[in-house]
């Protein structure tokens, strides 16, 4: 009887150890900041802090750290949070890894910075006023069009300084750190609509009008000069043939 139980006992032991072997890190915190630009694009900063749970993972992390040419895929083995949390198109990716000795000997972090286009979609209301709306399709937190944060995770959304008529629906679950900074703290899951307006000054409107008019006139003059040049060249060519 004991011999028959031995394989089962080994299997049970392997099953118990498998999670520890597969997951050699523990997530500690995740911070995401999205700074929105005037055109609706945004600069994204993500920082994942985690602990390395065994000596082998510490050695692996330091190997990639001192290698100096590690890719995002290399770092993703240390935490599921190390990924793009906003869908593309994205550009200008920078990845910075570091040990976090202030948090403990086994602590480490991976930070990502990148730019994402059209995080807010814009629509001209009139010559001076532009309205912006958050594109929830850009969210990549595991649930379509939803923000999903666990304990120790946060998202800050920093809108342009001249944004006004800022509206967030629903209001529950979001905090306003300042007039143009919104924040979400985990644990939470949900879908929020965010919108705001921007307005150019009257002097900017006049300047843009004249610049546009100047560009149109400039293009017309170039076309006219080209026609005159061709006419003169054609006239001289016809005289030479005579």
Order of helices and strands: HEEHHEEEEEEEEEEEH
Using the alpha-carbon principal axes, give the shape: flat
Radius of gyration: 29 Å
CATH topology call of the largest domain: Immunoglobulin-like
Distance between the termini: 118 Å
* Major sheet: arrangement of strands: 3-4-2-1-8-11-10
Question: What is the CATH class designation of the largest domain?
Answer: Mainly Beta
Helix vs. strand class: alpha+beta
Strand content: 35-45%
On the 0-100 scale, what is the average pLDDT?
85
Describe the secondary-structure layout.
Elements: H1 2-22, E1 25-36, E2 42-52, H2 55-67, H3 72-75, E3 90-99, E4 107-116, E5 120-124, E6 129-134, E7 147-149, E8 153-158, E9 164-169, E10 175-178, E11 181-185, E12 188-190, E13 193-199, H4 202-241
Parallel strand pairs: 1-8
Antiparallel strand pairs: 1-2, 2-4, 3-4, 5-6, 6-13, 7-12, 8-11, 9-13, 10-11
Short description:
The protein has 242 residues and is an alpha+beta fold. Helices cover 32% and strands 36% of the residues.
Structural features, described:
By secondary structure, this protein is an alpha+beta fold. It has two domains: 22-199, Sandwich (Immunoglobulin-like), CATH 2.60.40; 202-241. 32% of the residues lie in helices and 36% in strands. The protein contains four helices and 13 strands. The strands form three sheets. Strands 3-4-2-1-8-11-10 form a seven-stranded mixed sheet. Mean pLDDT is 85; it is low at 1-5 and 7-21.
């Amino acid at each position: 009887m004991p011999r028959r139980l031995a394989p089962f006992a080994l299997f049970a032991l392997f099953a118990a150890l498998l999670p520890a072997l597969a997951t050699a890190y523990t997530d500690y915190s995740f911070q995401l900041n999205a700074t929105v630009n005037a055109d609706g694009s945004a600069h994204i900063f993500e920082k994942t802090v985690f602990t390395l749970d065994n000596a082998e993972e510490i050695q692996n992390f330091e190997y990639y750290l001192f290698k100096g040419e590690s890719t995002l895929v290399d770092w993703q083995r240390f935490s599921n949070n190390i990924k793009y949390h906003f869908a593309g198109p994205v550009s200008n990716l920078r990845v910075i890894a570091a040990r976090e000795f202030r948090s403990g000997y086994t602590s480490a972090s991976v930070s990502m910075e990148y730019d994402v286009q059209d995080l807010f979609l814009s629509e001209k209301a009139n010559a001076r006023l532009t309205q912006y709306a958050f594109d929830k399709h850009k969210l990549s937190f595991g649930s379509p069009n939803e923000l999903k944060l666990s304990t120790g995770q946060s998202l800050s959304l920093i809108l342009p300084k001249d944004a006004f008529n800022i509206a967030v629906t629903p209001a529950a679950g979001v905090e306003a750190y300042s007039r143009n900074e919104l924040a979400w703290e985990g644990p939470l899951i949900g879908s929020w609509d965010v919108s705001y307006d921007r307005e150019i000054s009257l002097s900017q409107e006049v300047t843009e009008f004249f610049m546009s008019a100047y560009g149109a006139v400039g293009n017309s003059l170039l076309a006219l000069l080209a026609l005159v040049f061709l006419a003169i060249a054609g006239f001289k060519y016809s005289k030479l043939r005579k």
